[in-house]
Amino acid sequence: MTAAERLDATFFALADPTRRAILARLATGEASVTELASPFEMSQPAISKHLKILERAGLVSVGHDAQRRPRRLEPGPLQAATEWIGRHREIWESNFQRLDGLLEDLQAPRSVRKKKNL
Amino acid sequence: MTAAERLDATFFALADPTRRAILARLATGEASVTELASPFEMSQPAISKHLKILERAGLVSVGHDAQRRPRRLEPGPLQAATEWIGRHREIWESNFQRLDGLLEDLQAPRSVRKKKNL
DNA sequence: GACATTCACTACCGTAGGGTTATATAACCA
DNA sequence: TGGTTATATAACCCTACGGTAGTGAATGTC
């Protein structure tokens, strides 16, 4: 899987409140599928599907204990995600003063901007 | 829009390489739709759709200049996203030593764990 | 006025997400 | 062996995404 695909999977996995709640729950310790499903008004297969998406992103790994399949957190992919955001946020915010300075001019029609040599 | 919905929209917007490339391109300065579309082997309406998703997340705002609709970056939503990740990453990583310590026991069958009072 | 450019908007299509119920599998227990 | 528990899987539905092509409005230019 390429780095871009990993980012895709990670951000996508985070883009759902149920999945974020599952991650928050797992932060307090490993849990089985039924344990994870019980707080939600949602069927067990639905939770299993969400877990598949979290596993695809590498955010969750599966254990093996008799019939139970306890899920654990894997924080690794989050680092890549925060790094991507952080890297770009620096650039953006450093550009923002300049952009904000241009704003009034951009509101003006193009003809005005031409005279201003923008 | 609730905070959860804003997070949904932000993470979802970031979960696509085309949209991340658009954001990276906008980091170098505002750009029109056709300018944004040209590097991609993709039609202009497709780019417009991606922009709609970025706007829904509040990551991009639209200007108005004659026929042009220049897009600018709005880094605000990223802060909420990084804060969510950061907040949880702290908890997770602080729990990790404890979880790792339990791991060997969890690998063992339940009967063994019972004897160990786990 | 006539034309070109920029862009949005509307259908339309195929695929995948997010949910359901029902069923199969696997492991434990009696 | 039979029964229960935990989980996965399949089949199905509805909706939204991600792309296409086509159309039309707004604006600037000749």
Explained architecture:
The structure is a homodimer. Chain A is mainly alpha-helical and about 120 residues long. In chain A, about 70% of the residues lie in helices and about 5% in strands. The first copy, chain A, contains six helices and two strands, in the order H-H-H-H-E-E-H-H. The first copy, chain A, has helices spanning about 5-15, 15-25, 35, 45-55, 75-105, 110-115, and strands at about 60, 70-75. In chain A, strands 1-2 form a two-stranded antiparallel sheet. In chain A, helix 1 (about 5-15) packs antiparallel against helix 4 and helix 1 crosses helix 5 (about 75-105). The radius of gyration of chain A is 22 Å and the shape is elongated. The model of chain A is unreliable at about 95-118 (pLDDT under 50). Chains A and B meet through helix 1, helix 2 and helix 5 of A and helix 1, helix 2 and helix 5 of B. Chain A binds a DNA duplex (30 and 30 nucleotides) through helix 4.
Helix and strand topology:
Two copies of one chain form a homodimer.
Chain A: H1 3-14, H2 17-27, H3 33-37, H4 44-56, E1 60-62, E2 71-73, H5 76-107, H6 110-116
Antiparallel strand pairs in A: 1-2
Helix pairs in contact in A: 1-4, 1-5
Chain A binds a DNA duplex (30 and 30 nucleotides) through helix 4.
